[in-house]
Records
---
Amino acid sequence: MISFAPELGFFRESWIPGAPPRSVLTRWRCETALRVIDGGWGAVRWMVTGAGGALGTDLVDRLTASGAPPGDSVVALTRADTDVTDPAAVRDAVHAWAAAPADGADDTAVLLNAAAFTAVDLAETDPAAAADAWAANAEAPGLLAAACAEVGATMVHVSTDYVLGPLPDGARRPLEPDDPTGPDGVYARSKLAGEERVRAALPGAHHIVRTAWVYGATGANFVRTMARLARERDTLDVVDDQHGSPTWSADLADGLLALARSSAPAGTRHAAGGGETTWCGLARAVFAELGADPDRVRPCDTASFPRPAPRPAWSVLSDASWRAAGLTPLPPWRDALHAAVTRHPDLLLG
Ligand SMILES: NC(=O)c1ccc[n+]([C@@H]2O[C@H](COP(=O)([O-])OP(=O)(O)OC[C@H]3O[C@@H](n4cnc5c(N)ncnc54)[C@H](OP(=O)(O)O)[C@@H]3O)[C@@H](O)[C@H]2O)c1
């Protein structure tokens, strides 16, 4: 159910992908209960930045679905609405959001930051892109966090396995939030700097969530690419010496909302699809979902596919920090892939 609040001029400029035209979209009210851990709060006013991206689209979908809690409201900002690297635009957007009339005395404000520069290889090869990556991934989270501090909002900020370094002595076990950082490359360094700025600006009111290998229904991703290549090629060589946890963005969106509604203290946590595989393993799973022979995907090593930005060889994220916060870990990656392509069959069209 959507309700229009014409008095809120600011919200007129917000846009929710797939929703009514921006000229009529303002504020959404949702009627039934979202499956979340309830921190005992009243209505929540949410802001989603990066609302046009893979994760942002799912966050907005969840927050505007029929199962969202009554009284909650959402402002969804794409880059066209607010450039998160523009200090004045960020401050104006956050203050307008926070100043809008509340539904109740205990109205709580949570900003979900899904905006990021994610063209990892381009950031490595193009100085202008590197500057954009730094602005969006390092500086913008600091601007958003500072604005949240001014208005008393909590911020959920999404980060990446790329900020972590190899474990000592080449050990391989699921990575914890307090494992050593060691970002390699422009994107990785910019994301780590973003984490640091969020912690500094909002010491008691941030949730930093590192995730990995995200694919969603929106935009280009590895799953779509493998589905396309399954049609175009007889065989395919895919890297089999990088390990990680594929993450369906809709599952991540559910997890972030559960975290935001929980009573978990501020901190840094990991959330990714359960279990682990390699890119080759994920490609084979996509072939299997297509009904194609997974053995058409042949394993190769990273050296066979040099890329401008270095990739971690071991990106498997532990769910211990998630469980310790009382949260349900994201579903196993293989189940999630099946659920994703069942719900979004177009993912398999490439
Ligand atoms: N994808 C992965 O595998 C992965 C893995 C680990 C962590 N993450 C993290 O997960 C989060 C969500 O990623 P995603 O996969 O959803 O990425 P995505 O699909 O690329 O979405 C990012 C969104 O941010 C927007 N954006 C970029 N610069 C902006 C700016 N200056 N102002 C406003 N909006 C801006 C982009 O808009 P444009 O489209 O106009 O550029 C895009 O809509 C990010 O923090 C990312 O670092 C992703």
---
Amino acid sequence: MRRVVSAFIVLGAVFAVSPASAQQTAAPTYSKDVAPILFTTCTSCHRPGEIAPMSLMNYQEVRPWARAIAAKVADGTMPPWHADPRYGSFVNTRGLSDAQKAIIAKWASAGAPEGNAADLPPAPVYRDGWNIETDVVLSMTEDYPIPATGEVAYQYFEVPANFAEDRYIQAWEIRPGDRQAVHHMLLSTRPPQAEVEQMIKRQQQMMLQRMFGNPPANAAAANTPPRPAPPFSFACCLEIPSGQSGGRPLPPEQRKPLGPNYRPRPVGTGPTMGGYSPGGSIRVFPEGMAMRIPKGHSLVFQMHYTTYGKATTDRTTIGLQFAKTPPTTPLSTMALINASLSIPPGAAHHLVENSMTFNRETLLYSLVPHTHVRGSGWHYEATYPDGRKEVILSVPKYDFNWQHEYVFATPLRIRAGTKIHARAWYDNSPGNKSNPDPNTEVKWGDQTWEEMMYTGITYYVAPATATAAGQQ
Ligand code: HEC
């Protein structure tokens, strides 16, 4: 990067002396100036077998695309990245500097010269197989059939893990069986069946107690200290409509036929830990941070399939790399949602918001803003206990095709009492080219023609101490 920037400054200096002749001699070349940019910011997707439509690994492959590359880079659509650079700083930022953009523009308009092959830096080496060191590889246990056309409800697949002890995940890589059919995959874990049954029993007992108000059977239980307050509280709107993932089941007479191959969500499935979306198949946690998969738990894959005109099957696989030692900062996930949204027909700039308060000091690792095809923008503002406000992430042009995880360059230390206010905008007008129907009122739902206001949050919060619990 530094080399590229200084090359640009030198170019500038030459122009100052003699613009016309300098252009001849100093036009950037593929080998010297452009390849280093493509290798670091493009070839992760633009190589054989990856999600981009063409490979950009060498000059022969790049040359026919020179104009398109210059155009996509200039208008900011490539590399895909949607955070407003004025706010926050993220480890996985994909933007190009103005200097890099200028090199590509000059090179393309100079006829995309190859230059001297001796200047070419070594091409990045991508492994044919896994791009992370995998300790274990787990797959769906069936080739799931996907029809050629129509909608496919979310399907759930339980994947046995059988870990004999708690495992901490340092990195994962998810490989869809059929990249074209897998719109996204979300990963959760599920306790063993016996534990799930106990959990259900406990919940039933709690409900009975609420209904009939029995005093605790054991008098000593009344004197146990109150449980610590939850680390977060939400302003509103957490109730997911019945029949959608995470909501109550619909009464039987209202259930839609879900197709012959419906795989329902296993009872007891935990919250999502993250997952796969195009361009985001690998997650590597920094040292000391990792995600726990408890002993005996299985994995649950929530699969969202989209049909593409050809019947196919999918068997998605995950590779896991374990942490060598238990992390000092084990990460967890939660979601900030507004499930009560209702977007009027034709509304071009409809706002849906919600906020949450952090009751204990929390480390914020990443945010994943998620809306569907009507989502047009996101904005997150923190209000600190001293009243100071700060925008922690802004996504002025949300694009459903790119579900980025925004990983803070340094995890944000959020003091107790901090509030985060999330705002999402929706374009339900005919002006939105992706809008399947501008004449309908849109509510919360799993399918892309319904909407969500969902932010996946990865965080760390220290276990409540005895004193902290006593104070609450
Ligand atoms: C995260 C993955 C990813 C990265 C990184 C990425 N691309 Fe792409 N690129 C895609 C995908 C997927 C498409 C096709 C869909 C689309 O156009 O949005 C695409 C499309 C393109 C196209 C248009 C192709 C066409 O058919 O017209 C160009 C040109 C392009 N990319 C250039 C680049 C350049 C140059 C870079 C680096 C500066 C880059 N891309 C980085 C994934 C990526």
